[in-house]
Amino acid sequence: MPETTRELLTSSGWKDLPFNVFRDGVTIHWIKPFDGDSPGVALLKYAAGASVPRHRHEGLETILVLEGTQSDEAGDYAKGTYIVNAAGTEHSVWSDTGCVVLIQWDRPVTILEG
Predict the structure, then answer these.
(1) Any stretches that span the bilayer, and where are they (predicted)?
(2) Whole-angstrom distance, CA of residue 35 vs CA of residue 26
């Protein structure tokens, strides 16, 4: 990750980065898109009430909550929480209040519903 990206993440400078539509109510800023050989890294911004439908992890996924609270069937994850979802696991994700997460996927997920 370039030094400027690290600085943006730790100083809240990410708030000024451009985000694009990812899903309804969820926007994305790619830090490093998937290239077939290495993981994708991005910021996801959930509007209050936004969700991602049930999906299966085809590779390891790690998440760091930067702002707000992200939730899944296992619980609520507040700012500063680090989440690890192993390959083969399934869940849906939502945020009642809105949140921003730093996410890294080894491989894209498979959407199972919605």
Answers:
(1) none
(2) 22
Going from the N-terminus, what domains does the chain have, and what CATH number goes with each?
19-111 (2.60.120.10)
Is residue 29 within 8 A of residue 43, CB to CB? The reply is yes
**What three-state secondary structure class fits 58?**
coil
* pTM of the predicted protein model: 0.88
* Residues paired with 65 in a beta bridge: 101
List strand residue ranges (DSSP E) for the chain, in order: 20-23, 26-32, 40-46, 50-56, 61-72, 75-78, 82-85, 90-95, 99-105, 110-111
Q: Dump pLDDT digits (tens) for 10-68.
A: 667 778 889 999 999 999 999 998 887 889 999 999 999 999 999 999 999 999 999 99
Contact 66, 101 (CB under 8 A): yes
Encoded tokens for 58: 């085809």
**Token match 């539509």: residue?**
21
Q: What is the separation of C-alpha 73 from the centre of its chain, rounded to a whole number of angstroms?
A: 16
